[in-house]
Each structure stands twice: as C-alpha cells, then as structure tokens.
Amino acid sequence: MATTAAGQLRDQVSGEIITAEDPGYEEARKVHNAMIDRRPRVIVRCAGADDVVAAANFARENELDLAVRGGSHSVPGFGTADDAVVVDLSGMQAVDVDPETSTARAQGGATWRVFNDATHAHGLATTGGIISTTGIGGLTLGGGIGYLSRGFGLSCDNLSSAEVVTAEGEVLTASERANEDLFWALRGGGGNFGVVTSFEYRLHPVREIYGGPILYELDDAASVLRFYRDFIRDAPEEFGGFPAWQIAPPLPFIPEDRHGEPFLIFVTCWAGPIEEGEAALAPLREVAPVVAEHVGPMPYPALNSAFDDLVPAGLQHYWKANFVKELTDEAIDAHLEHGPKLPAVNSTVHIYPINGACHRVAPDATAFAYRDATFATVIAGMWPDPAQNEDNIAWVRGFYEATAPHSEEGGYINFMAGDDQDRIRVNYRGNYDRLADVKRKYDPDNLFHLNQNIRP
Ligand SMILES: Cc1cc2nc3c(=O)[nH]c(=O)nc-3n(C[C@H](O)[C@H](O)[C@H](O)COP(=O)(O)OP(=O)(O)OC[C@H]3O[C@@H](n4cnc5c(N)ncnc54)[C@H](O)[C@@H]3O)c2cc1C
Fold first, then answer.
1. Residue 186: which H helix or E strand, with range?
2. pLDDT exceeds cutoff 60 at 3
3. What's the gap in Å between 87 CA and the centre of ligand 1?
4. Furthest-apart CA pair in the chain: how many Å?
5. Where are the beta strands (DSSP E) in 57-182?
6. Is any atom of ligand 1 closer than 6 Å to the C-beta of 281?
7. Whole-angstrom distance, CA of residue 268 vs CA of residue 293
8. Residues sharing a CB contact under 8 Å with residue 435, sequence separation 6 or more, in sequence order
9. The pLDDT value given to residue 203
10. Is the beta carbon of 53 within 6 A of some atom in ligand 1?
C-alpha cells in the first residue's frame, strides 16, 4: 500500500523521495549516531515548506510514524525510525542575513556551520552549539547552549519568529504577535509541535573571539574546577568557556609524549573586545600550571568548528545530562573519580555555564524551565567500535550515577538519552502542563512523537 503511495508522493514534492529501492537509500538512512540503524519506509528530502506539508499529510493519512531530521545529531536518533516517513530537511539550508535589523532567517535544516558563515560575513552571530555540524533546528527547539549563552541567552531566547508546518499540514507563523502559545512552546519544547521550516534569530556584534583550549594536569583538576565554580558566578558575560574532561588528541600544540593521556581542559571563549581577551583569560593561566594551550584571536566560526574532527559522523553515542545549581566539593570529587577514566578520545564531559543572560529570562517565559541552574553538564560517550559499547555505556552511567545526587532532577533534553523519557516532566518543571495544553491544541494525535515526547 504505502509503496504505491510513496510513488504518489513523488509526484507531489519537488525534493527527492528515497525508498529502499533507490540506490541512495543506505546512505540516506544514516544518522550521526551509528548505533541507530533504522530502515524508514520513505525519506522525503524536502526542498521547501510545501514538501514538508506533503510529507506530514502522507504520514498522517497512511498512519505511518513521522520522523523529522535537520542536522541529524539527535543522540537517541529521533530523526529516523523503522517503517517511518522521514522529513529530511538537510536540503533546506539557506540563510538570509539582514544587517540593518541584525536578524537572520534560516531554513529549518541549516547547520551552525552554514549559519555562522553567513552571519560572520556581517560581523554578527547568535548563540549556537559548539560543533558546526549540529543542526540549528533540533538545537534551538531544545534550548541551545553554546559559547555565547552567558552573554546573549540560549539559542531559543534569540528566536524572534518561526514558520511551522503543523500536524494538520497548515503553515503557521509563530512569534510574540502570532500563535504566541506555539511560539512559547517552541522555545525549549523540542520538536513536539510541528516542523519548523524557517527560524528567525536576533544577531549580535561578534566577529572575532579570543579563546581556545587550555590543558591542565589531572593533579590540578580539583583546583581548576573549584576556581571555575567561583569565577563563573561574576565573570563578565563576554566569557563563555567551560571545563571538560578530555583525552589529548594527537594535535601539534600538545607535547607528543602526552597524546592519548586524559586531562582536565578548559575551552575558553572571550567574545568581548579582542584586546581585552588576554587579561580576561589571565586567571585561567594563573590557577594552575598550563601543560599546553592553543589560545588566541580567531574568527568566531573557527572556534565553532575547532572540535568537529573529534566527533565525525559514524561514532557510537550514549549521553547523559543534568542541570547543576552548585558545583559542590562532593560533585567535584565525583568528577575527579570518573573524569580521568574517559574510555575514548572522542568522549568528553562538559560543564557548561548557563547563568548570565540565561538567568534574566523568567522560568515561565519560554518552555525552557531551568533558569536557575548555573551549569548544564553533559556526559557524552562517543567511541568508534560497537564492540566497546558495553564498556563505554557503563562509563557514562557510572559517571551519571555519581554526579546525579549533586545535581538537579532535570537535565537538558538535547543532551539526554533515549532512555530518559521518564525525566521529561521534571525537566520542564512547572511548564509541563502548559506544554501539554499546547500539544493538545496543535498535535492532538501526537503525530510528532519521535522526540523527548510531551504527550497531548
Ligand atoms: C556532536 C554533537 C555536539 C552537540 N553540541 C551541542 C551544543 O554545543 N549545544 C547544544 O545545545 N546541543 C548540542 N548538541 C545536542 C543537540 O542540540 C541535539 O542533538 C539536537 O537534537 C541536534 O539537532 P539536529 O537538528 O542536528 O538533530 P536531528 O537529529 O536532525 O533532530 C533532532 C530532533 O529535533 C527536532 N527537529 C530538528 N529540526 C527540526 C525542525 N526544523 N523542526 C521541527 N523539529 C526539528 C526533531 O524532533 C528531531 O527528531 C550536540 C549534539 C552532538 C551530537
């Protein structure tokens, strides 16, 4: 039935239709996390909003699951499913920047690389993720944490409007002035409410930043983490760096005999005046002896893609996450126990600061509720060999179990695993019931259920 119908769909869309009979199917069904091995019924590589409407109608009318994919970075693999219709937005990446109004309108499948390159040409940027291959879609809808969060808020805080294809196949605008309830829910509520075919963002004057990674000995990790928790409380908001557990990759700025060893690193980013960068980062050079560093002025998109090679497509992924208000001595002890045991060079643990501008948004002003958390921690297990899945997943779980008692109940939905669905309600705190109301209004039959799902 649906194979014939897929043929009809071919006549309705201007983008590409890919089924198991097509030669590109094996490649087209891959997502970033190679642990996800699913065989969708049809992949619709959409060319515009009309194609998204046709795909949503097709899924609904044929009672097929609908998966939505932008940058395909979802760790639980929400961008695909067996037997599903996949709305693949990777062909929709146009970005138009208006330097007069400091805004950018980007199609729903753009990656941060395309977005940052377009805005950088005008000396402008907005908060995005730290890896350039991540999609703006999934990242923004879940919140959006990156180097610029302390200064300019989350990515979703910089969203000024969105064009949305609903479960009924309607094309709506959501903003402060139109479909306000939908706009509220899109900012943190994930892909639950429709397919966003274009996002409009506010931009800020950021061209060059001063930053890069600094490596410390494991013996100094406690001092660096203790320094960080105090420093970040009142650090200027132009400072957007974070500490990370990381095995040293074979890079020229790291002494060769230290490659492959675990370190506590600090990824620094000063987005204020470049000439103030060195002084702004001085405390980090003073807190402990520096083993190696690669810090200096660089274009913002350069820092944003500096770590892309550590996370190529095709790795196995398993992640866990928590929000943290206080990085207590006990929490630091748990980090010191588990951080140095990183099992793979691709794996990492980041303690992102989300205070500053993120705290100036009221917890009920957008769907993203944790406006009082100082940090968002991600334990990102990433490794190449499926034979090592058990060990790597055990490391992530062990780290998570040790730090969870010192963290908030909720975690950032974009960093959470597929087995974290029971934490969705606590993640949204008091906003959950309102999100469920919006879900009932725009997607009463839960067409958009392949996500960290808010049930209607
Ligand atoms: C290597 C890596 C680095 C990351 N770094 C960061 C980071 O620095 N900061 C951060 O905040 N997060 C980061 N993340 C997490 C990231 O925010 C989520 O994985 C997010 O879901 C990725 O979005 P995507 O569009 O690439 O993913 P996809 O897998 O394409 O999409 C994930 C889900 O988001 C929804 N979605 C995506 N696009 C749309 C759209 N246009 N309309 C409606 N729904 C949509 C759908 O439900 C979809 O299933 C990172 C993830 C990875 C793997």
1. helix 180-186
2. no
3. 14
4. 68
5. 66-69, 85-88, 95-98, 103-107, 124-125, 159-165, 171-175
6. no
7. 10
8. 185, 189, 192, 367, 428, 454
9. 98
10. no
Question: Is residue 211 within 6 Å of ligand 1 at its C-beta?
Answer: no
Q: Which atom of ligand 1 is nearest to the CA of 70?
A: 30
- The single residue listed with the structure tokens 């794996």 is 347
Q: Which residue owns the Cα nearest ligand 1 atom 19? A: 74
Indicate if ligand 1 lies below 6 Å from the C-beta of 381.
no
Tell me: pLDDT of 301 over 60.
Answer: yes
Q: Say which residue the tokens 């094996």 belong to.
A: 26
Hey, which of 414, 420, 442 would you mutate to test ligand 1's pocket, going by the most ligand atoms within 8 Å of its Cβ? 414
Residue whose structure tokens are 């993640």:
427
- Contact of 103 with 200, CB cutoff 8 Å: yes
Phi-psi domain of 58 (left: phi exceeds 0; alpha: psi -120 through 50; beta: other): alpha
pLDDT, tens digit (0-9, with 9 covering 90-100), for 311-342: 999 999 999 999 999 999 999 999 999 999 99
DSSP SS3 for 396? helix
